[in-house]
Design goal:
- By secondary structure, the protein is mainly alpha-helical.
- The chain is built from eight helices and no strands.
- Helix 2 runs antiparallel to helix 3, helix 3 packs parallel to helix 5 and helix 7 packs antiparallel against helix 8.
- It is globular and about 50 Å long.
- The two termini are 26 Å apart.
Length: 209
């Protein structure tokens, strides 16, 4: 209970106006990760704590990306992906785990695209799409949410293939994005609204199945 109280205190910190990330912001996420690690070690059979580890490590990477610390951000995205891949393999039916896994893959691909590592970015985006596609079907209660973010993944795949010089494949992915016609201008997938001292990620709420 004491660990959970401490974690709740850290995660509940808010500021009214966004500002640039500073070292104290990163330290706050570091403290939260330390508590999540303790919880995961103490309760190894509770997957929610491992999921929390991955989410917080991805949050740290996002903050580092905002601060221009791309090497550190890439390292933490890779750490989050390792945790999240393990969860998805063990709990295939939990859509939230797939969502968070796909989001980390997408964000890592964004860094790789910036570095013109297009082959690696394409691989990560394709894996992200595979995680999302089963939940974007017409018979899924999560259809609208997952179609929206899947469209953004297809859009990035189209741009990546274009940058690789594969115009045909770029066109294929662009067509897939257009076929999700409900969303003419989808928001950036997984865009963090980072609040110093606390973490907020659009799309987490309501994804419990």
């Amino acid at each position: 209970p004491a660990l959970l109280d401490s974690l709740a205190d850290i995660l509940s910190l808010q500021v009214t106006q966004p500002r640039a990330v500073d070292p104290s912001d990163l330290q706050g996420i570091d403290r939260a990760i330390g508590i999540a690690n303790q919880l995961a070690t103490t309760y190894p059979n509770v997957p929610e704590y491992q999921s929390l580890q991955g989410r917080l490590q991805s949050d740290l990477a996002a903050a580092q990306k905002l601060a221009g610390q791309l090497l550190e951000a890439e390292k933490n995205y890779r750490g989050a992906i390792e945790l999240q891949r393990s969860l998805v393999q063990r709990y295939e039916s939990v859509s939230l785990y797939r969502h968070c896994f796909a989001q980390s893959l997408f964000e890592l691909a964004e860094i790789q695209r910036r570095r013109e590592q297009f082959k690696e970015a394409k691989s990560n985006l394709e894996e992200a799409a595979l995680q999302l596609e089963p939940y974007a079907g017409a018979d899924q209660p999560t259809q609208r949410h997952y179609q929206r973010i899947l469209q953004q993944v297809y859009h990035r795949l189209a741009l990546t293939c274009r940058d690789m010089g594969d115009v045909r494949l770029a066109g294929d992915f662009a067509q897939k994005a257009r076929e999700i016609s409900d969303f003419d201008r989808p928001p950036p997938f997984g865009r963090f609204r980072f609040r110093p001292g606390g973490m907020s990620r659009r799309g987490w709420r309501g994804l419990s199945h």
